[in-house]
Backbone:
């Protein structure tokens, strides 16, 4: 009644929306349905049929299907089909409520079934009104849907349609609606219909549309209660998003459209309890039927889908299902498609297994099936073990069955590889029950008739191996085995069973028993049973048991237990026990000998415990032998155990083990030194060993992997996939020392510090001695110092070598230093005293001397120095051990005399002498060598004399450089030390030769030393020779000894040789008349006694006897070689030349020497004072050397055959007539001489030289007469050809004049002066020889180059005026000589001032006057005038005298009208002056009041800019866009002056060459100007100066840098518009001939526009073409003349491109102003364009007419309104669009620059308007307008205002348009991008996309 009242009160127009209560909600978590309150009310009592008919007429999709398309026969809906009614969804609720009110059940069923059928037909896209109506009915009357017919009809919505073929799950709304309505109708029922089970199985086996849907859980969770399936813990189910619940439509509620988070957080309110408790068998039958049918249809494991496995998981409550699943689980688990679902199924099977009840037998079979599974991957094994652990934890009764089946499987032939892991997992879950179950199984098997002991022992051994980490893990098993069996065994097997159980018991307890016996465990373990002993005595008793020595037998027995295969104890466990025992024993005091070991085999046994053995069940390939590998961790721990054993057994075990195992030796060294061992060197060998180890391990692992999976190809084993590479290492304990890992090294250091291993190892002297010897003498040994400073260490324990090393390394000095304490000093003194006491015994003295003196022959100088310090310290008698300075050098003279004072010197003599001889071969200090020689000469025994002489001979022969500083040199000072060394060497050789001669031919005594002894000389001395002297004595000597005697004689006698007795005797024995002869020699070569090098030494000595011996028998070719030796004394050279003169002519001629070089050599030697060689030179016909041509430089000339061999045969003298003919032919052009000119002049010069001895001859007279005739003819004005011939052939004339100069005939000086008078300006060798002849006659002492006239006399301190007068008096021939004389004798500064004044006078033209002389018409100007070369000499002298004062000549270099040499002076300034001077000079030149020459200043500045000194060290190949540095760094004032100089130069050139010349000159200077204008302010200063300097300069500057105009406009000091206006046709014409920076841009844009994608069509193509066109317009609109310059290219492109590109190019041309279009240069091009395109392009009509049409101006009313901006926004928007349409019609020209500017100024303020359409229209117009606007400031300000607007809509609008706007504002692109970036930083505006597009738009013309 209330409902009727409510509806009647609000009747009105019928609404299509149902009227539901306000609190309606969906069956989801949230509701977002909005019901309109304004909708009209309607009566819900009356059914409305008109609405249905009306919807049918409209063709709505809500109508029902035809009757013949209904459900198939047999479906649940078939029975109710006649009762279903067709209903409009809008009218469903009123009609249902009406049927309820009238109790019309048939109509109610018909309405409900009809609406369900309608919903089924709309399954893909259900009607929301219908869905909401059904939900509303479910909410208010849920029991209506519990009716059987309605339930069956709803189930048809959930049942899979046979004919439907959905490719996807589609819309889940229908499923969710049906499930929730079914649940609402049956939620209070305990017995649900079986139809639910059928539809559940149908969907679960197929698409699982609603089974997995989270919104259907209310129905699904109640259905699955029929299966009685237990849920496993969540951690056992694998997580996979694809297997989770389905979130409908990917978002929240299927009805209300909530978010995904709502779906995750949905909490549905429903109840779940058993619904099929009374129909268990029926449900089981239905499930089994469906499962078996599916299995029969899909037999293969891979054919089963995830849905089938999920159904099995849901129905695992049935035992048959568990059995089916367990039998097939292994295949499903290993399938790549179903392994996740199979893991879930495994968890369900384990969770639902029962140990009791009717299903227990089937579950035992299930467990047996699970035990037989062979899982191959580790994740599957872990999942299986986790499921078993959870199963036995929840149902302990199943434990026995699981253990039994696992053990049976392990004992079978098909055992699973993961049985041990399963048992371990079970023990971890049930640590007490599992061992008991195992024991029961063991006893059950042992009590059988068959004997199972052996397999059970193997199983127990595997268990022990699996539990190796826990030694007590098997104790519960042992206790369980000790329990009595469940029943008495039969009598016949009782004893066998007992023994078997006892054996297994021992296997379990062996490791634990060993640990208990060795007292490894804590004290509580031993006393917890009965608390004995008492707690007060427990610790002491435990210590007495534990702290006992470890015997060697115990250690060996434990090792054998681990190595035995019969005892089930792993080697690793035994190794752990041994390591604990050894560490415990090492902690005991070493005095108690806690660890006595003497068998070296223990090391091998320990490494056998560490060895890796492949599994026994693995068969390696035939022919392959596994390498010996060890477990890495055990291997290095084994080394640590050996180190501890060696530390406690240094005498019996350590020394032998260190020798046998290098790695142990290195570890011992590390313990002693505390540093890494020197044997751990990383090199090629170590890398090779590591690579071999890696390859061996990878190969073994590859074979193991192949054997583990037979029949399959395992994946390749690599470094990343290998499991053994990090766990194994090569077992080579006897190999080279290996570096341990970092952890092992740290553990060793910790053990050494805790257990004092280093101190224990130091008890063995042999180890220390070996360590010291391995370290050598070049390594610091601080560990030795620390060891010796230890208080508890006795010095007698340490070897002597260690003590000596401490002393020699500065131990005593360090102890007594400022940083040491008194105790350390006393320790050093005690050590020194101990070593000195050691010297009192023969053995100790031998050891000390051996250690020190062995180091005297070391190659390292500091080692030798430390040895000498140590010897001085131990041999000294002083008691103070700290008095020695360890930084000073100790001379052996301080300790060598102390050696004979030793008590056992006679026994030590041989050793000491051998060490001194060895030191003699190495030492480089001359004082030390002298001391060693003196010691050997004094103490050498006769039996060791031969060895001493051999070593001394080797030193003399091979160490010549060192001996040159030991023995006295030739003509050296009488140094006593050197003469003392010479005396010692002479004594040794003298004594030895006396001894040999006294022995005669007796064999020499045997070598007293062992050749293989370390430190001794092993040189045999080489070959021997038998010598015989004139007195009949014979001796057999080594050849090197004979050579040493002769070489020593070259040093001369010693000052200590009394009366030179020894030297004289030796000289008489080896040289002179009594020299020995070689009788028998081992070498077949002749002259073995006097080789060439020794002869050279004898000759070089310059001693008469030695010189004679060296020259005796030398042939000519060797003499020629000797004279070419450098450093030959004069006496020796004279003797050599005399010997050459005595050689046969044929031998000299065949020498083949280079004659020019030999002639020069002889001249040099004669200048030194050598005599002889005249005959040698005559035979070789030597002359002055001249350089041969390059192509014949190394060509060998054939030697002429000699007709005679007599030395005295002289060349045939030529007749006097032939001499005259020779001279006339050579110099006067005659042809009377027919012979060779070279040979003729050689003979002529030779005869002149020979005639010089006799006072003259025919040759001298002929040459002198010829020169006198040439001089007389030249003085008389004729015969100029002869004089020219003499000067033209200097290679003939110069030697001739020099020969005459040597002969010095009378009249030669007069002839030379006469010839010089005619050749005063000539330079060359002939004139030099003539001057030498003239000077020789005058007796002047100025040298060969002296002039004929005297030098001007100048006082020592002449004034500048005097020097200037001297220079002015010079002639061309005397200027250089006078200048050199003045420079050498006068003050440099005065000379510089004088030269500067001379240059100034030259520039002023002072020396250009013609001087009149009597008798002559006129004389040439002064040598210092501009027409001569005198100024060049002045400049050279000035540059060399004082470089920095060159800048003082600025008045010379930079004034107007300078001399021709001024550029040279400027270049010298730039190249030689410092930068400070150059910058000061440039600053002075650029002062405002300077009046310098413009060209000179500019060239100087360019020289500084382009100076090579600036670019030294910089890249020569500079990048393309590299900007040169501003090296001048001019100020604005200096730049202004520089620009004025450029303008001045331009005006000068313009007056001379016209405007074109001025343009060229300005363009040449512009690079200099632009280089100085790197910054904008500098560019502004340059532009302002150019505006005032020259109009063409400013125009060209603007063309090179167009932004000059912008800079000038922004400047406050900008010039007036009249100044900026380019005027004059002449200037325009000159500018057209130049290039502009915009030319490349224009050409690139036009070319890109003409060739832009001719085949492309579309928006991108047109947009890009518009951007290029806009860029071209912008360039031509803002740069004057840019369009006119690009007009020829545009015309050519217009003629060549296709028709569709014409409008772009022509539109760009419209930007040209009329004055440029109709100018003379462009008119011809324009006419050509018009002829081709006038008919097809009407846009050019305005150009042809020359007048602007009416449409050329923007709409006036629109422009005026926009300028006023008073109209409403909508009207302003329309006006902006009108202007834009006009501009588009104009083609983009916008009526010219003025009109475009007016429009831009009017529209720009509207870009930031709040009205969005107006703002968008304004920005669109600006994007098209800005390329045509000359002044872009209004547009820029408008865009910046938009970017800074607080209104985000304005910002977003400009961001959207900015990529198009920036095309017309590219000159402001940097400002816009920076402002855009700042906007992105301070706000959240999306600027990243806009930035990218702007950069792309700017980069469109990047190639320009």
Residues:
């Amino acid at each position: 009644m209330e409902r009727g009242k409510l509806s009647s009160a609000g009747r009105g127009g019928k609404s299509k929306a149902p009227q539901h209560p306000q609190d309606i909600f969906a069956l989801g978590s949230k509701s977002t349905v909005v019901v309109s309150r304004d909708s009209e009310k309607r009566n819900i009592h009356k059914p409305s049929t008109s609405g249905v008919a009306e919807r049918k007429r409209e063709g709505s999709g809500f109508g029902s299907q035809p009757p013949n398309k209904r459900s198939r026969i047999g479906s649940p809906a078939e029975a109710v089909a006649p009762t279903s009614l067709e209903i409009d969804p809008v009218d469903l609720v009123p009609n249902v409520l009406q049927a309820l009110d009238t109790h019309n059940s048939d109509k109610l069923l018909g309405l409900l079934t009809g609406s369900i059928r309608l919903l089924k037909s709309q399954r893909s896209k259900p009607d929301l009104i219908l869905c909401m109506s059904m939900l509303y009915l479910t909410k208010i009357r849920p029991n209506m849907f519990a009716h059987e017919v309605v339930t069956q009809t709803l189930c048809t919505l959930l049942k899979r349609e046979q004919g439907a073929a959905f490719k996807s799950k589609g819309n889940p709304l229908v499923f969710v609606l049906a499930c929730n309505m079914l649940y609402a109708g049956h939620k209070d029922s305990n017995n649900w219909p079986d139809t639910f089970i059928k539809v559940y199985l149908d969907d679960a086996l197929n698409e699982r549309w609603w089974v997995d849907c989270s919104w259907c859980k209310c129905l699904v969770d109640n259905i699955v209660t029929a299966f009685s399936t237990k849920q496993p813990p969540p951690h056992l189910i694998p997580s996979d998003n694809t297997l989770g619940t389905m979130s409908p439509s990917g978002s929240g509620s299927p009805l209300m459209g909530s978010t995904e988070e709502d779906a995750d957080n949905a909490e549905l309110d429903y109840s779940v309890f058993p619904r099929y408790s009374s129909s268990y068998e029926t449900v089981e039958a239905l499930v089994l039927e469906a499962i078996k049918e599916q299995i029969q249809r899909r037999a293969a494991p891979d054919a089963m889908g995830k849905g089938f496995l999920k159904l099995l998981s849901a129905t695992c409550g049935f035992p048959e299902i568990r059995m089916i699943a367990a039998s097939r689980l292994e295949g499903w688990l290993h399938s790549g498609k179903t392994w996740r679902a199979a893991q879930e199924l495994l968890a369900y099977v384990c969770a639902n297994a029962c140990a009791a009840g009717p299903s227990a037998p089937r579950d035992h079979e299930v467990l047996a099936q699970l035990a037989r599974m062979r899982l191959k991957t580790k994740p599957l094994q872990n999942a299986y073990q986790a499921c078993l652990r959870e199963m036995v934890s929840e149902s302990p009764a199943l434990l026995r069955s699981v253990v039994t089946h696992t053990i049976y499987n392990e004992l079978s032939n098909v055992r699973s590889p993961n049985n041990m892991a399963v048992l371990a997992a079970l023990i971890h879950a049930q640590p007490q029950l599992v061992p008991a179950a195992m024991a029961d199984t063991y006893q059950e098997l042992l009590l059988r008739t068959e004997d199972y002991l052996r397999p059970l022992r193997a199983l127990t051994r595997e268990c022990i191996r699996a539990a190796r980490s826990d030694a007590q893990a098997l104790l519960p098993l042992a206790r369980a085995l000790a329990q009595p069996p469940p029943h008495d065994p039969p009598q016949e097997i009782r004893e066998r069973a007992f023994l078997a159980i006892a054996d297994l018991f021992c296997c379990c307890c062996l490791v634990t028993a060993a640990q208990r016996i060795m007292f490894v465990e804590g004290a509580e373990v031993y006393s917890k049973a009965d608390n004995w002993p008492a707690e007060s005595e427990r610790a002491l008793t435990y210590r007495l048991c534990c702290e006992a020595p470890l015997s060697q037998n115990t250690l060996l027995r434990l090792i054998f237990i681990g190595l035995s295969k019969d005892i089930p104890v792993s080697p690793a466990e035994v190794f752990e026990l041994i390591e604990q025992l050894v560490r415990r024993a090492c902690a005991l005091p070493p005095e108690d000998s806690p660890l006595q070991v003497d068998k070296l085999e223990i090391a091998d046994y320990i490494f056998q415990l560490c060895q890796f053995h492949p599994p026994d069940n693995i068969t390696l390939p035939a022919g392959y032998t596994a390498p010996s590998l060890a477990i890495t961790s055990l291997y290095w721990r084994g080394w640590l155990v050996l180190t501890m054993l060696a530390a406690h057994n240094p005498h019996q075990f350590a020394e032998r083990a260190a020798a046998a195992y290098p790695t142990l030796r290195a570890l011992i060294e590390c313990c002693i030194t505390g540093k890494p061992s020197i044997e751990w060197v990383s090199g090629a060998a170590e890398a090779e060993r590591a690579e071999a180890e890696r390859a061996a391990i990878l190969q073994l692992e590859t074979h193991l992997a192949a054997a583990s999976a037979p029949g399959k190809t395992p994946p390749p084993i690599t470094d990343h996939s290998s499991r053994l590479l990090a766990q194994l290492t090569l077992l080579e304990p006897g190999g080279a020392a290996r570096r341990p890992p970092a952890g092992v090294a740290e553990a060793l250091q910790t053990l050494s510090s805790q257990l004092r291993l280093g101190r224990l190892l130091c008890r063995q002297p042999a180890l220390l001695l070996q360590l010291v010897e391995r370290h050598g003498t070049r390594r610091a040994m601080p560990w030795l110092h620390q060891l010796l400073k230890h208080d508890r260490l006795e010095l007698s324990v340490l070897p002597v070598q260690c003590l000596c090393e401490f002393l020699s390394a500065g131990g005593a000095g360090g102890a007594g230093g400022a940083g040491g304490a008194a105790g350390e000093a006393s320790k050093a003194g005690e050590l020194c005293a101990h070593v000195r006491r050691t010297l009192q015994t023969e053995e100790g003295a031998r050891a000390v001397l051996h250690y020190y003196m062995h180091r005297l022959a070391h190659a390292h100088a500091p080692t030798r120095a430390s040895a000498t310090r140590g010897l001085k310290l131990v041999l000294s008698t002083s008691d103070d051990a700290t008095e020695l300075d360890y930084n000073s050098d100790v001379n052996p003279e301080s300790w060598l005399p102390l050696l004979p004072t030793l008590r056992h010197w006679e026994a030590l003599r041989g050793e000491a002498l051998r060490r001194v001889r060895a030191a003699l071969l190495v030492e480089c200090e001359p004082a030390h060598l002298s001391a060693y020689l003196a010691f050997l000469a004094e103490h050498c025994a006769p039996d060791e004399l031969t060895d001493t002489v051999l070593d001394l001979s080797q030193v003399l022969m091979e160490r010549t450089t060192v001996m040159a500083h030991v023995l006295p040199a030739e003509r050296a000072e009488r140094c006593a030390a050197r003469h003392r060394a010479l005396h010692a060497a002479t004594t040794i050789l003298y004594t030895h030769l006396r001894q040999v001669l006294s022995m005669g031919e007796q064999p020499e005594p045997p070598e007293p030393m062992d050749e293989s002894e370390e430190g001794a000389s092993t040189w045999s001395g080489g070959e021997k020779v038998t010598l015989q002297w004139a007195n009949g004595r014979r001796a057999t000597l080594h050849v090197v000894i004979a050579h040493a005697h002769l070489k020593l004689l070259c040093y001369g006698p010693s000052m200590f040789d009394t009366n030179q007795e020894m030297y004289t005797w030796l000289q008489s024995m080896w040289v002179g008349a009594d020299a020995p002869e070689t009788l028998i020699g081992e070498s077949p070569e002749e002259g073995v006694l006097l080789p060439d090098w020794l002869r050279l030494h004898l000759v070089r000595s310059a001693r008469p006897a030695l010189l004679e011996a060296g020259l005796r028998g030398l042939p000519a070719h060797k003499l020629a070689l000797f004279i070419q030796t450098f450093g030959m004394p004069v006496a020796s050279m004279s003797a050599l030349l005399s010997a050459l003169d005595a050689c046969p002519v044929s031998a000299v001629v065949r020498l083949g020497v280079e004659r020019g070089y030999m002639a020069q050599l002889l001249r040099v030697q004669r200048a030194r004072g050598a005599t002889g060689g005249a005959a040698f030179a005559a035979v070789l016909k030597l002359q002055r050397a001249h350089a041969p041509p390059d192509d014949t430089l190394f060509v060998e000339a054939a030697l002429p055959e000699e007709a005679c061999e007599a030395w005295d045969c002289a060349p045939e003298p030529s007749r006097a007539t032939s001499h005259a003919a020779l001279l006339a032919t050579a110099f006067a052009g005659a042809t009377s001489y027919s012979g060779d000119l070279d040979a003729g002049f050689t003979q002529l010069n030779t005869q002149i030289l020979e005639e010089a001895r006799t006072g003259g001859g025919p040759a001298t007279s002929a040459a002198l007469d010829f020169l006198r005739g040439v001089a007389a003819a030249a003085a008389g004005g004729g015969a100029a050809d002869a004089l020219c011939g003499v000067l033209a052939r200097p290679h003939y004339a110069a030697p001739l004049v020099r020969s005459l100069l040597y002969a010095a005939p009378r009249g030669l000086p007069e002839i030379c002066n006469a010839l010089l008078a005619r050749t005063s300006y000539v330079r060359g060798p002939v004139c030099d020889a003539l001057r030498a002849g003239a000077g020789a006659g005058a007796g002047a002492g100025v040298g060969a180059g002296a002039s004929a006239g005297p030098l001007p006399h100048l006082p020592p301190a002449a004034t500048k005026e005097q020097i200037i007068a001297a220079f002015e008096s010079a002639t061309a021939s005397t200027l250089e000589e006078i200048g050199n004389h003045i420079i050498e004798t006068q003050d440099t500064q005065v000379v510089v001032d004088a030269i500067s004044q001379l240059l100034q006078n030259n520039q002023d033209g002072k020396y250009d006057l013609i001087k009149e002389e009597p008798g002559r018409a006129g004389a040439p100007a002064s040598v210092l005038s501009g027409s001569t070369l005198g100024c060049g000499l002045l400049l050279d002298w000035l540059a060399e005298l004082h470089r920095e004062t060159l800048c003082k000549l600025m008045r010379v270099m930079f004034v107007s009208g300078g001399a021709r040499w001024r550029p040279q002076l400027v270049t010298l300034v730039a190249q030689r002056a410092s930068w400070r001077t150059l910058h000061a000079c440039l600053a002075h030149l650029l002062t405002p009041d300077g009046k310098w020459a413009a060209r000179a200043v500019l060239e100087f500045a360019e020289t500084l800019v382009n100076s090579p000194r600036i670019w030294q060290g910089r890249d020569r190949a500079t990048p393309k866009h590299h900007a040169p540095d501003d090296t001048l760094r001019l100020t604005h004032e200096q730049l202004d002056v520089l620009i004025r100089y450029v303008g001045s130069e331009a005006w000068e050139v313009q007056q001379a060459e016209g405007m074109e010349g001025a343009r060229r000159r300005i363009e040449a200077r512009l690079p200099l100007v632009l280089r100085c204008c790197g910054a904008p302010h500098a560019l502004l200063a340059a532009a302002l100066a150019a505006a005032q300097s020259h109009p063409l300069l400013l125009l060209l500057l603007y063309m090179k840098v167009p932004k000059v105009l912008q800079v000038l406009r922004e400047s406050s000091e900008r010039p007036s518009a009249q100044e900026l206006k380019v005027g004059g046709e002449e200037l325009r014409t000159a500018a057209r001939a130049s290039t502009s920076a915009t030319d490349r841009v224009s050409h690139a844009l036009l070319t890109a526009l003409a060739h832009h994608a001719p085949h492309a069509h579309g928006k991108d193509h047109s947009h890009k073409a518009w951007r290029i066109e806009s860029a071209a317009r912008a360039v031509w609109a803002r740069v004057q003349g840019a369009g006119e310059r690009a007009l020829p290219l545009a015309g050519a492109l217009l003629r060549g491109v296709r028709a569709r590109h014409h409008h772009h190019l022509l539109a760009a041309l419209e930007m040209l102003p009329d004055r440029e279009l109709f100018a003379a240069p462009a008119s011809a091009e324009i006419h050509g364009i018009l002829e081709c395109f006038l008919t097809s392009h009407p846009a050019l009509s305005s150009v042809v007419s020359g007048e602007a049409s009416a449409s050329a101006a923007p709409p006036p009313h629109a422009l005026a309104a926009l300028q006023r901006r008073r109209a409403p926004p909508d009207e302003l928007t329309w006006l902006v669009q009108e202007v834009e349409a006009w501009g588009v019609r104009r083609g983009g020209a916008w009526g010219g620059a003025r009109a475009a500017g007016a429009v831009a100024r009017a529209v720009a303020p509207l870009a930031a308007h709040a009205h969005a359409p107006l703002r968008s229209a304004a920005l669109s117009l600006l994007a098209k307008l800005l390329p045509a606007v000359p002044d872009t400031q209004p547009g820029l300000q408008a865009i910046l205002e938009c970017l800074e607007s607080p209104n985000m809509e304005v910002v977003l609008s400009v961001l959207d348009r900015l990529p198009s706007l920036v095309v017309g504002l590219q000159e402001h692109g940097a400002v816009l991008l920076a402002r855009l970036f700042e906007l992105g930083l301070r706000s959240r505006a999306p600027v990243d996309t806009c930035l990218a597009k702007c950069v792309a738009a700017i980069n469109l013309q990047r190639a320009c």
